[in-house]
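lol forgot to send this yesterday, sorry. struct tokens for the thing we talked abt
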């Protein structure tokens, strides 16, 4: 899917003013080794201002916040996953990552619940200062075992450029049984404007292993837009889960190496290559470096 001519932050424009936007997009995955494997499909997602959830809940009779509807957003699906205040959670995690000033605006890109069902492989939090500068991103990744991990990534000097944000993180969290943990993520992000682009390159010591992208066009959420998107991509949440298992079957049939699920790390990492240990009370007790390939 094309965003037209937008290849830069300036060309894509500023983030939308709306409390809630509908994102009509497409997802692509391409695996390069040990055997090539590729798929793509259409998808629908949301961009929501977490400080304006009440306003977002009034955007359409077909959309609800923390309720049942054709499309819905549920607080407990995100952040600490306990239904508590999302801003308080992200401010706390950003502070632990060294970002002293709370963001002035926080936009969350995520999948909707559709008729009560939802699964979101990755959601991305965009954190802006009062001047509109993107100061941090949080990549919240989930697997089908019910685990989740958030990579907190303040925008460091040199990571922001005219074409977007470029960041790297060591992979700490098991996502697929056909991908090892000894890898790095390279994120290439065109932040929300008229469109949105998320690109992730997964690399190991031998080079690129997998490329994934999510490209979308943004529009204000309306009842007509929800109805059209549901007709184009019905049951998008079930489609995502079904696609994950279908593609896993294809990889298994191709004889791809299989990696068992390790013990999940602490739910949040604040530095590249570092996961926090967990106690029985899920408290942070110290830092344990996770080895992985170099970023260059």
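and heres what i got for the seq, position by position
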């Amino acid at each position: 899917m094309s965003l037209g001519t937008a290849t830069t932050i300036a060309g894509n424009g500023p983030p939308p003013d709306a409390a809630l936007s509908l994102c009509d997009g497409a997802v692509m995955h391409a695996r390069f080794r040990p055997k090539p494997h590729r798929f793509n499909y259409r998808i629908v997602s949301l961009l929501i201002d977490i400080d304006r959830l009440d306003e977002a809940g009034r955007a359409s009779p077909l959309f609800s916040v923390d309720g049942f509807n054709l499309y819905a957003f549920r607080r407990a699906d995100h952040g600490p996953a306990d239904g508590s205040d999302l801003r308080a959670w992200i401010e706390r995690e950003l502070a632990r990552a060294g970002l002293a000033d709370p963001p002035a605006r926080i936009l969350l890109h995520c999948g909707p619940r559709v008729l009560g069902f939802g699964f979101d492989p990755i959601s991305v939090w965009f954190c802006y200062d009062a001047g509109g500068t993107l100061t941090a991103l949080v990549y919240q990744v989930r697997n089908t075992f019910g685990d989740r991990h958030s990579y907190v990534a303040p925008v460091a000097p040199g990571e922001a450029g005219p074409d977007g944000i470029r960041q790297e993180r060591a992979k700490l969290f098991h996502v697929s049984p056909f991908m090892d943990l000894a890898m790095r993520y390279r994120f290439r992000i065109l932040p929300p404007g008229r469109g949105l682009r998320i690109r992730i390159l997964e690399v190991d010591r031998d080079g690129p292993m997998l490329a994934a992208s999510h490209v979308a066009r943004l529009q204000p959420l309306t009842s007509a837009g929800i109805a059209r998107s549901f007709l184009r991509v019905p049951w998008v949440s079930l489609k995502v889960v079904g696609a994950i298992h279908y593609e896993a079957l294809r990889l298994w049939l191709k004889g791809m190496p299989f990696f068992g699920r390790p013990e999940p790390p602490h739910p949040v990492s604040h530095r590249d290559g570092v996961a926090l240990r967990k106690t029985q009370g899920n408290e942070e007790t110290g830092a344990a470096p996770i080895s992985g390939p170099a970023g260059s």
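The chain is about 15% helix and 40% strand. anyway ping me if u want another try
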